[in-house]
Amino acid sequence: MSACRSRRDFLAWAGVAAAAVPGRAAGPLPGGSLQVARAGERYVNPRKVLLWECTRREIREAMESGALKAAVVPAGSTEQHNEHLAMIQDTASALLVAQNAALQLYPEVIVATPVPVGISPYWMERKGTLTLRRETFLAVVFDICESLRTHGLKAILILNGHGGNAEPLKSEVPGWREKLGIRIEAHSYWEAYTSENASRYMQSGFAMIPGHAAEFETSFALAAFPERVRREGVDYSKVQLKLKSSKDAEEDRRYYNDSLLAAAEKGEALIRIAVDWTAARLRDLIAQS
Ligand SMILES: [Zn+2]
Predict the structure, then answer these.
(1) How far does the centroid of ligand 1 lie from the alpha carbon of residue 84, in Å?
(2) C-alpha 64 – ligand 1 centre gap (Å)
(3) Which of 24, 55, 218, 245 is buried most deeply by CB count within 10 Å?
(4) pTM as predicted
(5) Ligand 1 centre distance from Cα of residue 78 (Å)
(6) In the chain, what are the domain boundaries?
(7) Domain 3-231+239-288: which topology?
């Protein structure tokens, strides 16, 4: 199989989630038609696993038949991702992993509407970043989980794509489990990676997963939604960020330099690991509920 052919297959397999993220132009990604994706032995319209694309009848019937057993709530951010990467990266990546994992388990899992803004106060010096207060973010995620529980879902995976959301979610989820009386887990999708399964793809080192707009995230974007990587006109040597902390400025430059190591092929391999890992978490969650 040629590299080109394999790239097309990957986009057909994984690219569809991006179409559902606010701000993304409708239509197929480069590489062919993306109207269907494989789920086990069946071809399934990938939008079928997205709650907000379903009608109430579809959700009601899936619940009543017992086919639908779990939900994923993707949580992301809208925040600066250096000079070259779109702000929606963390939301789009969590959604893409969630959607593809749900397709592996079709029709047992539905993907709830992603939470598109996270806890990002530390990026507010860089233009464009949106942030929620910790309590606001947690209240939104909790209310989504409670809504799903109200409809009868008994197993929820919160799949996070933004570093600043990780600790708050981990610390709150045990209490939510008690309060709602259902199984809820919270994981960041990069928990899928170990030095064994991911080091070989990371020239900047395993510790740079997830990093920030560096080799890992830029590779992810090049694989899944390459139009969100825009280096044309970027000259980092001329960037005037005026950051208060010299450590922040140094880190920003290091991340940018590391992003130059990114490649779509690395992103493809890393995405597949995250999707398979997330599908395994969902299987566990369903088995326990
Ligand atoms: Zn990010």
Answers:
(1) 12
(2) 38
(3) 218
(4) 0.88
(5) 9
(6) 3-231+239-288
(7) Rossmann fold (3.40.50)
